[in-house]
Amino acid sequence: MAGEPPSAASLPLALTGLLGAGFVLARALGADGLAAAALAAGLAMAVATSGRGAARRGRLGGALGLAGLAAAVAVAPPPWLGHALDALPPLCELLLALVFAATLLPGREPLIARYTRLDRGVVPPECEGYARRLTAFWAALLALLAIGHGLVLAGVLAVPDGVLLAVNPGLVAAVFLAEHLVRTLRFPHLGIASPLRTCRVVLRAGWHEAALAPASAAPRRPRHAA
């Protein structure tokens, strides 16, 4: 694909993943200040590296602000931080579910189809239905995870502290990897569906660019992967 070399594009992705793992570990150990710092730093990395060209440069100020917030929270965590961090995962799951679901509305292109178009230049006709169903699946899965997480926080479900922090991301990662295997087997003529390539496309384009784009956007000519 055109753009950054794979190694350069993978570095921010790897760092963001490490910061996410650091957030989960710090929360499990009760180090809320470090957890919040890892979260803010991960968001700063994602903001700084998402989008392309001028859009990316315009977000550097926000990334620097988040990095400063990470340092401040690590040094002096506020007393309400623990409750905020408890509520954050289900809110994020709900937000992502709404992002996926919103792209299924009339006049919009399903989010998975949009990322396919950003990657390949076009959406192969045989993939259109699959992309819509997969978008709906992710919306439903993330909504269920958000509901389950909320029920645990409300005390309706008894689950040990920290279990959901490991189980939910692990489940999402497992489904993400399994779907790429299914896609490879279902559409062998399109080549191997690479999870790393998908992550690069998402990181480079930014979820907001794909989620908010109308379905009427003019398709680009197909490109071959580098």
Descriptive account of the structure:
The protein folds into 2 domains: 1-78, no CATH class; 80-226, no CATH class. Helix content is 71%, strand content 0%. It contains 10 helices and no strands. It has helices spanning 6-28, 32-49, 54-58, 60-75, 81-102, 111-120, 128-153, 163-186, 195-205, 207-212. The termini are close together.
Poorly predicted segments: 1-8, 216-226
Strands, count: 0
Order of helices and strands: HHHHHHHHHH
Please state the overall shape, judged from the principal axes of the Cα atoms. globular
Strand residues, percent = under 5%
Arithmetic mean of pLDDT: 77
Helix content: over 70%
- Radius of gyration (Å): 19 Å
Q: CA-to-CA gap between the ends?
A: 5 Å
Keywords: Membrane, Transmembrane, Transmembrane helix
Transmembrane segments: 36-55, 62-81, 87-107, 136-157, 163-182
Protein name: Ketosynthase
Organism: Caldovatus sediminis
Short overview:
The chain is mainly alpha-helical. 71% of the residues lie in helices and 0% in strands.
List the helices and strands and how they pair.
Layout: H1 6-28, H2 32-49, H3 54-58, H4 60-75, H5 81-102, H6 111-120, H7 128-153, H8 163-186, H9 195-205, H10 207-212
Helix pairs in contact: 1-2, 1-9, 2-4, 5-7, 6-7
Key features of this structure:
71% helix; disordered C terminus; 0% strand; 226 residues; disordered N terminus; mainly alpha; 2 domains
